[in-house]
Automatic annotation (TrEMBL):
<dbReference type="InterPro" id="IPR032466">
    <property type="entry name" value="Metal_Hydrolase"/>
</dbReference>
<protein>
    <submittedName>
        <fullName>Amidohydrolase family protein</fullName>
    </submittedName>
</protein>
<dbReference type="GO" id="GO:0016787">
    <property type="term" value="F:hydrolase activity"/>
</dbReference>
<dbReference type="Pfam" id="PF04909">
    <property type="entry name" value="Amidohydro_2"/>
</dbReference>
<dbReference type="GO" id="GO:0016831">
    <property type="term" value="F:carboxy-lyase activity"/>
</dbReference>
<feature type="domain" description="Amidohydrolase-related">
    <location>
        <begin position="91"/>
        <end position="282"/>
    </location>
</feature>
<dbReference type="InterPro" id="IPR006680">
    <property type="entry name" value="Amidohydro-rel"/>
</dbReference>
<keyword id="KW-0456">Lyase</keyword>
<dbReference type="InterPro" id="IPR032465">
    <property type="entry name" value="ACMSD"/>
</dbReference>
Length: 292
């Protein structure tokens, strides 16, 4: 079965490099990612754009918009990109220049959507500072992907990344589709309700386990851990709005795919691993066609 991994990273972020070396033991490079894709029948990935100007400052408040996949000079052919947004630069005299650069990038066919780093940046997603970004998303028919749940940095503030904040946003912006990353973990039941209630909200299952095989074996063999997520998936009962993502390099793709296969009932695998991505990301059909 072909797979679309809708949540990976390919940015020169210090914490990603360290995680790859110390925890997941993956080759954090374009060649390493392509090798994992080939071994696991992943035909396309979507990279989440983010950058840091100072080592260890992820996400850096001084990073210019739009943030991209800066581990490479250009997006590899087997990837698309969700451009990252730094809201701290969307205020004041520089704001229009930042928005102009974002819009110029959104015109590129390799851009699949927009990424907000809620929690890392201390703004609620329904804050008016993001309104011009949502207007651009509507204009170009692109989804907005939102980090929710725990932050991979102690400098994040969890009140901004709670999935319930997306409920208010979804009501304000019914013309835009949103994706809750990481199923809002640890608030997975709240995220499940936001998905079930709002027709324009989806969720991905990325980033729920970080590490190598011993880490995965420990968690996959812990019923309380697995049931934490299964309960939310059963409650939401919207497998057509759940998408597969790994959050690579936080975990090897083969282990993460095995983990998600255990979480999701088999009859829904084709939807979660492949079909649902086409409904949320309109531009991926053309990208896959170009890959032949």
């Amino acid at each position: 079965m072909p797979i679309i991994d809708i949540h990976i990273h390919l940015s020169d972020i210090d914490s990603f490099h360290r995680t790859a070396i110390d925890l997941s033991k993956v080759d954090y490079s374009t060649a390493g990612l392509k090798a994992e894709f080939d071994r696991n029948d992943v035909i396309l990935g979507i990279g989440m754009g983010v950058s840091e100007q100072t080592k260890g400052a992820f996400p850096d408040s001084s990073s210019p918009n739009p943030m991209g996949l800066d581990l490479e000079e250009q997006v590899p052919s087997f990837l698309m990109e969700c451009v990252g947004i730094n809201p701290n630069r969307l205020d004041g005299r520089q704001a229009q220049d930042e928005l102009d650069r974002i819009e110029a990038r959104l015109r590129s066919p390799e851009v699949a959507g927009i990424k907000l780093y809620a929690g890392y940046y201390h703004h609620y997603v329904y804050d008016k500072i993001y309104t011009p970004v949502y207007e651009l998303a509507a204009k170009y028919n692109l989804p907005v992907v939102i980090h929710t749940g725990d932050t991979y940095s102690m400098n994040g503030l969890l009140k901004y990344s709670h999935p319930l904040t997306v409920d208010e946003l979804a009501l304000q912006q019914r013309g835009v589709n949103f994706m809750i990353c990481h199923l809002g973990d640890p608030w997975v039941m709240d995220a499940a309700e936001v998905v079930a209630k709002n027709p324009n909200v989806y969720a991905d299952l990325s980033g729920l386990v970080v590490g190598d095989r011993p880490h995965f074996e420990r968690f996959m063999n812990e019923p309380l851990f697995m049931d934490h997520f299964r309960r939310a998936l059963v409650y939401s009962d919207h497998y057509e709005k759940m998408l597969f993502g790994t959050d690579w390099p936080l975990a090897p793709i083969d282990l993460y795919a095995e983990f998600v296969r255990r979480l999701v009932p088999e009859q829904h695998h084709e939807k979660v691993f492949y079909e649902n991505a086409f409904g949320l990301f309109p531009r991926i059909s053309q990208r896959i066609a170009e890959l032949g």
